[in-house]
Amino acid sequence: MNKVIISCAVTGSMHTPSMSQFLPITPQQIADHSIAAAKAGAAILHLHARDPQNGRPTPSVDVFRQFLPQIHAATDAIINITTGGGPGMTIAERLQAPVAISPELCSLNMGCINPGLFQLADKYDFQHDWERPFLEATEDLVSKNTFRDIREIIEALAPGGTRFEMECYEIGHLYTIAHFVDRGLLKGPLLIQSVLGVTGGLSADPDSIFYMRQTADRLFGKEYIWSLFGAGRHQMPVCTMGALMGSSVRVGLEDSLFISRGQLASTNAEQVLKIRRILEELGLEIATPAEARQMLGLKGRDAINL
Question: Which stretches are annotated as coiled coil (predicted)?
Fold first, then answer.
């Protein structure tokens, strides 16, 4: 199917509550934002959990179970649970919710990266004591995703039929995917998510987008679905450039807090509607959740533990 899958990353783990009053924190807020994003056209919902008291990222299965059943009951969207978790989480913590719930799709970071948000530490008046040191610590933070980590995540989830949104911040991460394909641990159709514009990763410019596409084509031929997103101000330009080259797209408040220059997005659905309008004006068709399941070879919504 030659249709564009829209993913929505609803809350993430790097933005902090003081950056935007619209960032969904509580389970009910995450559920409400997710349901509205699905109704706006998102076929995939990429989900993290947060401590409802202070907004800090949490791996708690109990918190995930406070919003996932609502989303599952109210939408046909594909539930995609993070295995990246949040800074400082162990692999065991990052796998708690994915293993318990066995979703159709999980994110999978394909290499180590130093995602730097430390420049933002002096830009806000923070509500919670944890926020400033959390951001400052990203100057020396390595998001650890070694070959062993990646293997353990795949081996924990693939037997239950979960497939992966493979997040690639660098060209080398594509070769890591190829390594696991060669070992027989990953099989097509692959969902490859190019991540552009994160400090510490590949730049968000047309050359980077083309290089990602060219390299993935060489490595995987037609055995993959390509998606991409741009961080912060790069969100809509990168998605638009990628879509013109045949990609699917990801938006959401995890990736950017804004809807336009200087204006905070009030909901995730607002970003979904904006990229959907751009795509449709370019003559592109939006994939439904059922079509996305077929394109990605997913096990189906009835095969998850909710």
Answer: none
